[in-house]
Amino acid sequence: MEDITEIAILGMGNIGTEFVEILQHQLSEIEDITNQKIKISKILVTDLNKERNVQIKQNIITTNPDEIFNNKNISIVIEIMGGVDPAFEYVSKCLESSKSVITANKDLIATHGKILFQKAKKNNVSILFEAAVASGTPIISTLIRDLSYSNINSIRAIINGTSNFILSEMEEKNTEFMEALKLAQKLGYAEPDPTNDIEGFDARYKLSILSSLAFKTEVEYPKLHVEGISKIDSIDFQYAKELGYSIKLLAIAEKIKSGILARVHPAMIDVNNPLAKISGAMNAIEIQEKLLGTVIIQGPGAGPSPTSSGILSDLIHVLKTKHNSQSVPNLINNLQINDIKTLESRFYLRFIVHDKAGVLSKMSNILGEESISIASVIQKENTNLEEKYADLVFMTYKSSQSSIDKAIQKIAKLDVVDQLKSLIRVE
Amino acid sequence: MEDITEIAILGMGNIGTEFVEILQHQLSEIEDITNQKIKISKILVTDLNKERNVQIKQNIITTNPDEIFNNKNISIVIEIMGGVDPAFEYVSKCLESSKSVITANKDLIATHGKILFQKAKKNNVSILFEAAVASGTPIISTLIRDLSYSNINSIRAIINGTSNFILSEMEEKNTEFMEALKLAQKLGYAEPDPTNDIEGFDARYKLSILSSLAFKTEVEYPKLHVEGISKIDSIDFQYAKELGYSIKLLAIAEKIKSGILARVHPAMIDVNNPLAKISGAMNAIEIQEKLLGTVIIQGPGAGPSPTSSGILSDLIHVLKTKHNSQSVPNLINNLQINDIKTLESRFYLRFIVHDKAGVLSKMSNILGEESISIASVIQKENTNLEEKYADLVFMTYKSSQSSIDKAIQKIAKLDVVDQLKSLIRVE
After folding, report:
1. Do A313 and B136 touch (CB under 8 A)?
2. DSSP string, B290-346
3. Could you tell me if B216 lies within 8 Å of chain A, comparing CB atoms?
4. What number is the average pLDDT over the span A52-77?
5. Of the candidates A148, A289, A306, which has its C-beta nearest B292's C-beta?
6. Out of A33, A142, A277, whose CB is closest to B138?
7. What average pLDDT does range A287-298 have in this prediction?
8. Which of A146, B102, B159, B325 is the most exposed place for a label (fewest CB within 10 A)?
9. Cβ within 8 Å, pair A296-B294
10. What is the mean pLDDT of residues A401-421?
11. Sequence-ordered list of residues with C-beta below 8 angstroms from that of B41, at least 6 positions apart, any chain
């Protein structure tokens, strides 16, 4: 056995509590694997007197982060407080005082990853964040360590368990969005305010992390197009099924000529595509690489235990590699982040139209004017609508987003058209 | 840039050729990532004058392995010759002369892994073998590096692409085994002598490697039960479908009280299980871990490009970690490898019986005597059989392998029973 490695933990919520319990329980095992003695020296909390479900000596709890930053014996800090502020300040200070950092904080890495990686390298310490995407499912390590040599063409991922649970419910049980959301909330899969998950913001943070690692370039998340799932109706699943598709909230990043195109939105995917088969709160990340072909990594997306397992994996890595900064991502490229307008895709468009003669011809004329070819059309009474309205569904061949936008604007002006109810890209 | 790292390659077949081409093509990129200059100094071949599809200077080709073992400037050796003999001798000599080894050789690691790991550690160099299972699909690195802390309960894997292709063909196109095998041979998925793949021997090598890493114990492959797929009939797929199952060649290793139980055999799995959805020559490995839950890694199982990508990943790891032996597996446990007789499982049994009254009652009596409960029975005319014969299918509840064996022996003696045509365990 070598010296004792002292660890500090920032934050003691659900995950912190679970993690400390697991660490205490598996300590001797981890010491055997890493050949090092480990000790939790300090835990930063907001309330010294809170009751906790885990045994911690009172003298290691503190509300003063300086006790951690200034303690030279602490060489590893685990940040599980969440949020960008004050996590960014705290993590920066730890790296600057030559402590390696392990974080499960996707907001932090998505917002300040590049600068934190630089700080780590400058101070010759490590920063690891396996649990920031898909909890302990080994996707970050795969991108950083196993595929570091790689020429990745694309990433397509289901990385928001809440949305995937809701969409799976809607598909399997024919329920409407609100009903599925309520069930997700009841089961603890969705927050009381579900915006972050259902509008795609959570997935966008994660996509910005995955794509920055895959393409070795900074990907500022506000630049990424995002659409959520709250506008999808149960009937869209029926049409999707008829056409041979499932609907998923996909996070997609592709290398294109002029840089990368990354986006989060609902997408129709062929029912035989492995991603179509990822159901419930599960996460899955598909990587397409030039030599390797297609690899899919599937696992839990959240939860105290899987998250703790990701943190543990990082901890062992830091201990084994002796804080070596080699695993810190090098964002050596400076790729352009393209606008969704440059996308070429197939589109599913569902309009509510007045049930009158000539509607189809007027609409297909406009699509023709914008050089959009139609692959399938479904016109049906929608029994959820009043009598005079009907659903008109177009599935296009590959078209540019800008042509589609123009066509939709023109179609909206037709008096026979009530509204565009759904626009779903086809992957 | 630091010093030049000199590399030698043992073997120059399909994979060797592809790998050298890729390495030449991506050299500057790899040098950037690893911050090291790399040079291929020697390549061991069997025929100096063979025409090659890749440009290599004649002076680096040799038929004398001593030129590699004795060259102190060579610090990494990539073994892609295959087979145990002389690969074991050569790899041993490389490790003993303090060279790190990268190998894609599953036979070698399955047969001599433990001793090679010891040699590597003793000489403080590395031995890596990502491409030995599922080509470049990152499963070895996941087990060794990301889940090193883990308490794995089980591994269930589809790790023979040939068998999975044949079974997928039989299932999707209703063809018989021989026809599917011929197609696999025509498409290059199966060898002219397919025994190794279709009888499960290839999967058994790979399972012995995966389970030794997962449970950190030596798993001698000859101790593992193995059954192939050649006895499965197209009609078994029909019954499976009726009962809600698919049939896959699974490699399974579980932790049980008295050690581990590992086996390769055809298995029925619920059609909704993600493993049931792995079709064609694809590989997939499911890992169940105490904290993490279920993770599935899916990717290509073979081929020069994916295999080269696995070797490349290992090469970069060795270069980045400076030959650190920390990544060499520590088989610290000494777990008992249990006999298949200790298995508790559900069973699918298909008998060919004489189409006479009383058959069902005689057979179910015997099953009852052995305390085997029946979950489903299907009795049908099998139109492939002569008129006087019929199929009788039992799906049992969980029973011990030894009870099943006894019952089968008794049933075989019944004059109304022609033969046991299929025994497939249900996962």
Report:
1. no
2. TTTEEEEEEEE---HHHHHHHHHHHHHHHHHTTT-GGGS----B---B--GGG-EEE
3. no
4. 94
5. A306
6. A142
7. 96
8. B325
9. no
10. 95
11. B6, B7, B8, B60, B71, B73, B74
Name residues 127-166 of chain B within 8 A of A (Cβ): 130, 135-138, 141-142, 145-150
**Long-range pairs for A255-258: beta carbons < 8 A, 24 or more residues apart:** A255/A152, A255/A153, A255/A154, A255/A215, A255/A335, A256/A338, A256/A342, A258/A336, A258/A338, A258/A342
Does ipTM surpass 0.90 in this model? yes
Q: Is the pLDDT of residue B369 over 80?
A: yes
Q: Which among A26, A149, A305 has CB closest to B313?
A: A149
pLDDT for A414 beyond 80:
yes
The pLDDT of residue B387 is above 80: no
Task: Provide the pLDDT for residue B50.
Answer: 87
Give Cα B64 distance to the centre of its chain.
Answer: 32
Output the pLDDT for position B427.
94
The pLDDT value given to residue A2: 54
Annotated catalytic, B206? Answer: yes
Question: At residue A252, does pLDDT exceed 50?
Answer: yes
How much is the average pLDDT of B349-359?
Answer: 90
For every residue of A210-273, DSSP letters joined together read HHHHHHTB---GGGSEE--STT--HHHHHHHHHHTEEEEEEEEEEEETTEEEEEEEEEEEETTS
Looking at beta carbons, which residues of chain A come within 8 Å of B168? none
Considering CB atoms only, which of B30, B289, B299 is closest to A295?
A: B299
Q: Is residue A1 over pLDDT 50?
A: no
Question: Which positions ≥6 away from A358 have C-beta within 8 Å?
Answer: A416
In sequence order, which residues have a C-beta less than 8 Å from that of residue A16 and are 6 or more positions away?
A: A9, A43, A80
- Asked if A149 and B33 touch (Cβ cutoff 8 Å), the reply is yes
Q: What is the mean pLDDT of residues B355-364?
A: 89
Report the pLDDT value the prediction gives residue A338, as an integer from 0 to 100: 96
pLDDT band at A324 (very low <50, low <70, confident <90, very high): confident
Nearest to B182 by CA among B171, B194, B172: B194
A310: which chain B residues are within 8 Å (Cβ-Cβ)?
Answer: 292
Q: Give the catalytic positions of A in this structure.
A: 206
Domains of chain B (ranges, CATH numbers): 4-136+305-327 (3.40.50.720), 142-300 (3.30.360.10), 343-426 (3.30.70.260)
B1 band by pLDDT with thresholds 50, 70 and 90: very low
Residues of chain A with C-beta less than 8 angstroms from the C-beta of B146: 130, 138, 141-142, 313
- Largest alpha-carbon pair distance within chain B? 84
How far apart are the C-alpha atoms of A268 and A352, rounded to whole Å?
Answer: 20
Look at the pTM and tell me if it is higher than 0.90.
yes
